Amino acid sequence: MSLLHQFCLFLYDSYVGTTIRESANLFPVIETVHVLGITLLVGTVAVMDLRLLGVVLRGEKFSDVAGSILPLVWTGFVVMFASGFLLFWSEAAKSYGNAAFRIKLLLLLLAGLNPSIFHATIYRKLESWDDAPVAPVQARVSAVCSLALWAAIIVAGRAIAYGH
């Protein structure tokens, strides 16, 4: 048995994991908070992505849109991450062997790399395209990747309940 599997069993069998899992109300409340966190995160990220694609807010500078929205993005991320960890904690043993859960984690990693690459590359030249109605190709590719990754993360998250 791997160290990771042992850790998952430890979490699953812990007081916190058992309490969340066996509570009639706690798991559904945490799951609802998780969905609301994802909604806030993905909704706000989608606005920025759609701005990059020139679909919405074409007359606004990207930096203004991002500056207004980023606090909500981070709030959604913190809520999603914290509630997701609690959900994982309560079902860690089941999640360990669940293919959909593993796919979701991989997609989350890619979704985290996407803005890192965006900020390390095309965002460095923001002054030259900040007020353009449509961002440069590299920024639009990043936006399409972001939208696709978050959609896939949501699908994978739903599939966790039906996985083995």
Can you walk through the features of this model?
- The chain is mainly alpha-helical and 164 residues long.
- The protein has one domain.
- The chain is 79% helix and 0% strand.
- It contains 8 helices and no strands.
- The chain has helices at residues 3-13, 15-22, 26-52, 62-90, 92-96, 99-120, 126-129, 137-160.
- The longest helix is centred in the middle third of the chain and has 29 residues, at 62-90.
- It is elongated, with a radius of gyration of 18 Å.
- The mean pLDDT is 94.
Topology summary:
Blueprint: H1 3-13, H2 15-22, H3 26-52, H4 62-90, H5 92-96, H6 99-120, H7 126-129, H8 137-160
Brief characterization of the structure:
The chain is mainly alpha-helical and 164 residues long.
The pLDDT mean sits at 94
From N to C, what is the helix and strand string? HHHHHHHH
Round the Cα radius of gyration to an integer and report it: 18 Å
Distance between the termini: 18 Å
Main sheet specs: none
- The structural class is mainly alpha
Strand content: under 5%
Could you list the spans in which at least 5 consecutive residues all have pLDDT below 50?
A: none
What is the total tally of β strands? 0
In helices, the fraction of residues equals over 70%
Q: How many separate structural domains? A: 1
Number of helices: 8
- What is the overall shape? elongated
